[in-house]
Amino acid sequence: MQKRIGILTSGGDCPGLNCAIRAVVSHAKLQHDWEVLGIPYATQGLLERKTTLLNLHGLDLRGIDPLLSMGGTILGSINKGDTLAHASEIIASYRALALDALIAIGGDGSLAILHQLACQGNWNLIAIPKTIDNDVALTERAIGFDTAVNTIVDALNRLTFTAASHDRVMVVEVMGRTAGHLALHAGIAGGADCILIPEIPYSIDGVCHQISELRDRWGRKFAIVVVAEGAKTANDSSIAETQNFASLECGMGQYIANQIKSHNTLTDRLDVRVSILGHIQRGGIPSALDRLSATAFGKAAVDLIAREQYGQMVAWQNGRVVDVPIVDVVARSPLPVAPDNYLVQTARCMGIYVGDG
């Protein structure tokens, strides 16, 4: 039986979204001859009942398929607004568009909202996880994470040469919201000396001891400090310092730099600079791993619809694609880094300061 399915991308963009869209359209059309409607700007597109009919070759450039290597999302995305305030209208739009199922590609926040709408409206919903933060529960891998790690590692490679040339401490602030997966993975792969993440308490004493050790024991006159944007203030910051940080609304990178500069054992000895990578981490050409993951996820999502197994999210576990209940994903997300995570232990074995654990 021919089906009419919708697909949307919600939340912040990331590399690999177009690969997943491509896989869904290819598998749905070639294997099932289904109609696939792209819904622009996620729930806003649903609210306005806007759709684009997607086909295998509609975006070809003289026969060349650009979607594998195109960052962002051809469908557009939103990560703001009060979607639930328009819940009844959005729910009605699903029926008005005569959809048999909806594939939603999103992070933990988007999936929580869409799951709530699906439950209220009795939608046939399938989810695909995407986020550079890698904090969606029950999946080892989300679309966009690998490319973002590679982007940060490339930046750390470049900053290391400048730090070494000028005897500087480079503080690099990366994304991740309330989770430290991005900072931890990129910090290890990029040769950081300190990695500060939200889940593990740390002290400025500990950071400065690491820097001093590099200089006094090993003759290293530079250091790389990677800090997640959601990291907490240091254990040894005074109440006044913490309040001042909050009032200034500066980022964690600048906070750490200021704390290092003012540390009594290192005053006037260090040239500390801050690099905030910001949204550059979201952009770029998707890595091979993100292309593979996105393609496998897209294929699996269509298979779930063919079997009419709804309310599921495709996930990567133990080297293969599986499906898990969306309700369980929502209940356990966002997923933090466990303090005893094997990569935390790995970092410490490599001599990296990862907090006072």
Automatic annotation (TrEMBL):
EC number(s) reported in the record: 2.7.1.11
GO biological process per UniProt: canonical glycolysis; fructose 1,6-bisphosphate metabolic process; fructose 6-phosphate metabolic process
Domain of life from the UniProt record: Bacteria
Active site: D133 (proton acceptor)
Binding site for ATP: G12, K80, G81, G107, D108, G109, S110
Site feature location: Important for substrate specificity: G109
Enzyme class of the recorded protein, top EC level: transferase
GO cellular component, one term: 6-phosphofructokinase complex
Residues binding substrate: T131, I132, D133, R168, M175, G176, R177, E229, R273, H279, I280, Q281, R282
Cellular compartment(s): Cytoplasm
Pathway assigned in UniProt: Carbohydrate degradation; glycolysis; D-glyceraldehyde 3-phosphate and glycerone phosphate from D-glucose: step 3/4
Keyword set includes Ribosomal protein: no
Record key words, sorted: ATP-binding, Cytoplasm, Glycolysis, Kinase, Magnesium, Metal-binding, Nucleotide-binding, Transferase
Gene3D superfamilies per the UniProt record, alphabetical: 3.40.50.450, Phosphofructokinase domain
Transmembrane listed as a keyword: no
Entries under Pfam families matching the protein: PFK
Record SUPFAM superfamilies: Phosphofructokinase (SSF53784)
Cofactor(s) in the UniProt record: Mg(2+)
Binding-site residues for Mg(2+), renumbered to this chain: D108
InterPro entries given in the database record: ATP_PFK, ATP_PFK_prok-type, Phosphofructokinase_CS, Phosphofructokinase_dom, Phosphofructokinase_III, PKF_sf
Reactions the enzyme catalyzes: beta-D-fructose 6-phosphate + ATP = beta-D-fructose 1,6-bisphosphate + ADP + H(+)
Domain Phosphofructokinase: from-to ranges: 4-305
Function of the molecule: Catalyzes the phosphorylation of D-fructose 6-phosphate to fructose 1,6-bisphosphate by ATP, the first committing step of glycolysis.
Family: Belongs to the phosphofructokinase type A (PFKA) family. Mixed-substrate PFK group III subfamily.
Subunit structure: Homodimer or homotetramer.
Record-given protein name: ATP-dependent 6-phosphofructokinase
